[in-house]
Queue: 2 jobs
Job 1
Amino acid sequence: MKHLRVTLWIYALALRRSWESVSKNWIVSFAPLAFGFIFSSAVSLVGRLGFIGGIVILLVSQACLSSGLYMIENIVHMGKTNFDDFVKGFSVYLWELVRISFILWIPLRLAQIAFAEVPNGGLMLALIEIALYVFLNPVPEFIYQTQSSGIELLGASYNFIVENWIDWFIPTIALTVLGYLLVQALSFMTLSLPGWVQFFIVSFGFGLCLTYIMVFRGFLFAELHGTTRRGRAYRYDANA
């Protein structure tokens, strides 16, 4: 029972900090729209260049992820971010993200080849991908909140999930579902508006929900990583 109270206290703390931070940095909600435009432009420009085009598209997508993570990092650690962070962020974590993508691509590619002719191979491959999603779910937070890198980072993510999977997934899944429902409701409520207006409003709503979820994950990770249940209980008693 004590663990439940401590966990709920941590959730409440992360939720409040996230609200305060996002309300001061709501402009970041437009970042996913900008990333989408950048990525779609890259696909239009180099999508037909075969292997070279694929490499360019990969770099663009990882650069956008890098920028997003860097802005979230600044919100979580300093309480603010700006356009300079948006621009600078394209290179901050680019090569770390590319390295991780390459590390994961090799075994996945081998698995695709191995299961290509195996009965139910598609199902087995899907189960592997689900397992990777579960055990590597906090990789974004490890990238900008720890010194881990490459394979070490992936191993640290696995250990974190093994130790904290309930405390981590319950709120993140709940917020993701809630965010999805809010975006769907916003889309329904704007059906009568001109298409471009609806697109703008729904995109902003999606960006706002995504920003809040990622900031919440950052604060929750900071509370869970490197701590024990006993240590968290001690902090709870000290703040009670």
Job 2
Amino acid sequence: MTVVSLSDTRPPEVLHTAVAARLRTLIVEGRLGPGEKLNERELAARLKVSRTPLREALKLLTAEGLVEHLPNRGAVVAQLDADDVAAAFEVMAGLEGLSGELACARITEAEVDEIRALQYEMLAHHARKDLSGYYRVNAQIHRAINRAARNPVLTETYDRINARIQAFRFRSNFDADKWAVAVREHEAMVVALAARDGAELRAILIAHLNHKRDVVLAQLQSNAAQAKG
């Protein structure tokens, strides 16, 4: 088992946030799978922290919808069925589209440059087939577009729904061809954003999320068929 050191000497509010971030990554990347029981003793040893910040971190992830508590099982990684996934992606596509449209009207040139720099970094990760690094920067780009919309209600809703489907967005890149399509869509996003073409960016972002939804639902269907077989 890989041990990740998170020092208990950090201030409590910083420590449990750091623990939550590490657990979130483990869940998103599938190293803690859907339905897996979250044993506090084992996780505390794995992250080298006491149970107090771990419990606070689990509360944060429960609020985000990444963790749920089941009778007689305690905390487990949340599971979404195909209908839940389809519904969440449908909402997320609308939120992404609105973010892009508003961002084109409100973004600064400096923010466009920052997103363009992130795009180059993301492409470098893709060239190295570094999916973890790619997804981290990819998520930064989507968040930057959302923040550039300058609508706090939109951002609050975006963050809440996105937290539930991050793991699925990550897994949608497991197929190399679909991953390449996503990269091309990101390149088109930056072009539309730089041109301040809100209608175009909205359409690209909605199509981007719908493509990811389709990949994820196909994966779920394939997994269900294999389990039945």
